[in-house]
Amino acid sequence: MKVKICGVTTRDAAITACRSGADMLGFVFAESPRKISLERAKEIAGLLPEHIKITGVFVNETAETILRISEWVNLDYVQLHGDETPEFCRQLGVPVIKALTIREKSDIKKMRIYDCDYFLLDSPGVRYAGGSGNPFDWSLLKDTGIPREKVILAGGLNEKNVGEAIRIVSPAMVDVSSGVETNGKKDLKKITSFIKAAKGREKDVSLYITGQ
Q1: CATH code, domain carrying 20
Q2: What are residue 120's DSSP bridge partners?
Q3: Of the listed 23, 76, 122, 175, which one is catalytic?
């Protein structure tokens, strides 16, 4: 099971995630308590092993800005959480993760009109785009015929429920942000515990991190 740690803003959180077995890290460039500067994102990205994928989170941003940031930080994916159309996603010409808010079964049908690398299925946001920290009803994904190999499951995941979420949904990847935080900050112990729970085993990872 692949794991994405989103909303990374510090070097320590990034390094801990990598050493614990994370497969992807997310930088938030939209309005959010976890918004990161371009300079800090580029600095952290430069520390990571090559196999760690990096995505940038955007909400209703212009194509020019998305592509400029993508090139500057050297993103592997752009993650779009706004009202971006299928045409907009295609015209970017870079790997796209399209986030979809799941409230009811009909929301899942939107996957059919997008041609993206992954779909991030998330809970409805409260103040900002993205999850509220509460899971949506995973049973909505049953008997839908969706391409599970393209599904990144997000919204209210933590070390206690991620195993059941994986069992019910069978996603390609799970995504967590607030579920590995304490008082709004990334908690290094929670990051490690979540990754171990998601992968279902102790992971002995010893990775070279530039500058370590």
Answers
A1: 3.20.20.70
A2: 99, 152
A3: 122
Per-position b or e across 105-140, b if 16+ CB within 10 A of its CB: eeebeebeebebebbbbbbebeebbbbbbebbebeb
The tokens describing 193, both together, are: 């515990």
pLDDT, tens digit (0-9, with 9 covering 90-100), for 38-90: 999 999 999 999 999 999 999 999 999 999 999 999 999 999 999 999 999 99
| Amino acid 207: pLDDT | 42
User: Does residue 22 form part of some domain?
Assistant: yes
Which of the following is catalytic: 6, 18, 89, 116?
Answer: 6
Domain range holding 195? 2-199
* Residue 6 is among the residues annotated as catalytic for this protein: yes
**Predicted confidence (pLDDT) at residue 132 exceeds the cutoff of 70:** no
Q: Residue 106 falls within a domain, yes or no?
A: yes
Q: How many CA atoms lie within 13 A of 200 on its CB side?
A: 8
pLDDT > 60? residue 206: no
Q: What pTM was estimated for this model as a whole?
A: 0.91
Provide the domain count of the chain: 1
Residue 211 resides in a domain: no
116 is catalytic: no
Q: Residues in the chain, how many?
A: 212
* Domain assignment of residue 205, yes or no: no
